[in-house]
What we know:
Blueprint: E1 2-6, H1 18-25, E2 31-38, E3 44-46, H2 67-70, H3 91-98, E4 104-109, H4 119-130, E5 136-140, H5 143-152, E6 157-162, H6 169-175, E7 180-184, H7 185-188, H8 191-198, E8 202-206, H9 211-220, E9 224-227, H10 230-236
Parallel strand pairs: 1-2, 1-9, 2-4, 4-5, 5-6, 6-7, 7-8, 8-9
Antiparallel strand pairs: 2-3
Helix pairs in contact: 1-3, 3-4
The structure holds SN-glycerol-3-phosphate (G3P) and calcium ion.
Amino acid sequence: MDLFAHRGVSAHYPENTKAAFYAASKLPIAGIELDVHVTADGEVVVIHDETIDRTSNGSGYVKDLTLQQLRSYDYGSWFAEEYKGEIIPTLSEVLELFVATHHRINIELKTDIFPYEGIEALVLKEIAKHQITERVIISSFNHESLQTVSQMAPYIETAALFAEILVDFTTYTAKIPANAIHVSLPTAFRRSIGVALEQGATIRVYTVNDLEYAKQLQQLGIQAVFTDDPEAILAGLTK
Ligand code: G3P
Ligand code: CA
């Protein structure tokens, strides 16, 4: 079963920072996951929330601040004093860390609250610039965003994120269309995910930080999990 470092190695570094991704880039794991939003001046930045309040010493919506304004805050000290000085990274800066590695890169478009008009084109441009097309997975809870990606770049792998339990994941996902299904941990154990696996679906599960659950998912035939602590899960899983 493959492991993806969720928001980088976010158990040990401030999430979605270059420190968290640099640590992941050195690990023998399948890939990483990151979240993107768009700034007031049209830059794609890597951060989980719509606001910078939780993960910086600043306040405000990413969409209302320019990159320069966002860069005036510290994104490390909320996690631990030793990471003081971490800045909000652009997507381009994070991708740069993985140009020469083997890792897959799951870019989650955080368009479920604010649609960030044009984000799909901006992200596709960065992917092309870094020549990592074959290693990228674009996911979103906003399946309209995935439709847009699929129309603009059908050669890019897409994944539909689900927070809820569907009766028929395979038919729904084919309709978008998306190539893979990303579900929460409780959903992964439901009957409909077992059926989707039997139908040949690619299923990845978020966010798995408990080794016992990781082992159960491996037994089920789940292809990959997102974890904040990939080294700990890797050490406990049998190949
Ligand atoms: O992509 C899987 C997972 O990251 C989705 O949930 O809230 O951690 O972005 P969240
Ligand atoms: Ca995410």
